[in-house]
Write a structure and sequence with these properties.
2 copies of one chain form a homodimer. Chain A contains 9 helices and 10 strands. Chain A has 244 residues and is an alpha+beta fold. Chain A folds into 2 domains: 3-142, Jelly Rolls (Sandwich), CATH 2.60.120.10; 150-237, Orthogonal Bundle (Arc Repressor Mutant, subunit A). In chain A, a hairpin with a 2-residue loop joins strand 9 and strand 10 (217-219). Chain A is globular, with a radius of gyration of 18 Å. The two termini of chain A are 30 Å apart. Chains A and B meet through strand 5, helix 4 and helix 5 of A and strand 5, helix 4 and helix 5 of B. Chain B binds a DNA duplex (30 and 30 nucleotides) through residues 151-152, 183-185, 193-197, 199-200, 202-203.
DNA sequence: CGAGCTTTTGAAGAACGTCAAGAGTTGTGG
DNA sequence: CCACAACTCTTGACGTTCTTCAAAAGCTCG
């Protein structure tokens, strides 16, 4: 993963949503990046810390984890290549969650001074960065609706539909086949379930024929069927090009 | 509620988080507002609609509601005076949720052209508006953690602590006393519970002495006790002044 | 006073969690 | 290349939390 790749990755995060002017692209490329590798299980950002840079995912999977006093953990979001995991840290500074590497990972850190510079020279790019955080909010709302009102089976189906869509956009899913490099305990922490019930829910979804899932390989034989079963409507992901 | 009040309300939304320059204030006051009244139960913004203005709450309570195919409803957020309910609509345009008036309500609509104008002339005010949406995201993460990992009783306690803090900042709570103008069905839709279990959970919290709650009047006799019981840590609300 | 809404209660059942243990898999060191 | 340890997945049994259904009681407002 070279610096050139990193800038390309960043540019490709915007282009499904709006066109970038040559000036926008040049401005993005002018930002110094710090590329760092993390091993599986390592903590990239600590909960309750103060931050002065934000990180863009290059490879691997990360999650935002909230640790409760009870010792329980909730993973509030999953992130893959192209996701600006903690862009909200630019405005918030205070991190209400940790960021943990769920697989070996490469990320590019951008200093907040650089982002601030963008806000001072490019209103358009500023709105696009802002957009990334509001899309994140839309995903979070969908997660809230799932946790609050969908039973475990639909909740899992909905997550698989979302991951399929997001992975496809960055070339990591093809014909509804993709890799989920997560253990069931992590999936349980995402869906708010116990590990045992997570296991039984996966088995039930498999048995129903809605997904084929062996090891980390997932295949969704009939996407629209799973989407309908899970109440999945991709519009909240905002993969639509318009003037922003 | 006059126009002057509306601008004051808007300004007071920022000041707990950062100071505004005279230019910032003048710019805010230059935005045309459209003040509208809604009756209890009315829909202010429809789910799946396209929007070209965003609304700031003046009086009353609103909620963001997601309606699922199953007929179930999840209220993903509550909003009170000073909240910019759908500021994310400025960047997203597509509304993945509805906004519903939970009480009689006055809101001020700001056209997106005006917000765009701000992004073109004031990087600082742009960052502050952006901040409001990222704080919203932090609240959503906390909601996800509650729904995923807290049992009903703690979930309710946590909500009450959050409301106490937020209402106090806008002068609607004093000495941990405030009004919750919501019926138990609405609370159930916020906490992801059935109405019956919502009722029993409220009773249990009352019985435990953690809250006094009769009709819509809530009193938290020992806030830190309830906060500890519920795992509430107000830092995610970002009521802290710093350079943004 | 009555209609409609909201709160409350009881009873039964479904969904999910916990505990415990066995089976399968992966990785590591000798 | 094998043996062992550690991790992960799976299963069974049982308990708890929460839901559903149904109905009664209380409240509000014309």
């Amino acid at each position: 993963m070279t610096y050139t790749d990193a800038y390309e990755r960043l540019i490709k995060t915007f282009t499904p949503r709006d066109d970038l002017s040559p000036d926008d692209v040049a401005l993005l490329r002018s930002m110094p990046l710090r590329i760092v590798t993390f091993g599986k299980g390592e903590e990239i950002i600590a909960q309750d810390s103060e931050v002065s840079e934000s990180c863009l995912m290059m490879t691997g999977w990360t999650g935002r984890a909230v640790y409760l006093e009870s010792g329980k953990r909730q993973i509030t979001a999953l992130h893959i290549a192209g996701d600006f995991v903690d862009l909200h840290g630019f405005t918030l500074k205070y991190m209400d969650h940790s960021v943990v590497a769920l697989t070996a990972t490469q990320v590019a850190f951008v200093r907040h001074e650089e982002l601030k510079r963008i806000t001072q020279v490019s209103p358009h790019l500023t709105r696009l960065l802002w957009l990334l955080t509001t899309i994140d909010g839309a995903v979070q709302r969908t997660t809230i609706a799932s946790l609050g009102r969908r039973p475990a089976l639909e909740r899992l189906g909905h997550l698989l539909c979302e991951l399929d869509c997001r992975l496809a956009v960055v070339g990591l899913a093809d014909e509804h086949r993709f890799d989920i490099p997560l253990v069931q305990e992590e999936l349980a922490d995402i869906l708010g379930l116990s590990v045992v019930h997570m296991n039984r829910t996966i088995q039930e979804l498999r048995k129903g024929g809605l997904v084929a899932w062996q090891g980390s390989k997932v295949v969704i034989p009939d996407f629209s069927k799973l989407a309908q079963f899970s109440g999945f409507d991709p519009r909240y992901l905002n993969f639509i090009k318009r003037e922003r």
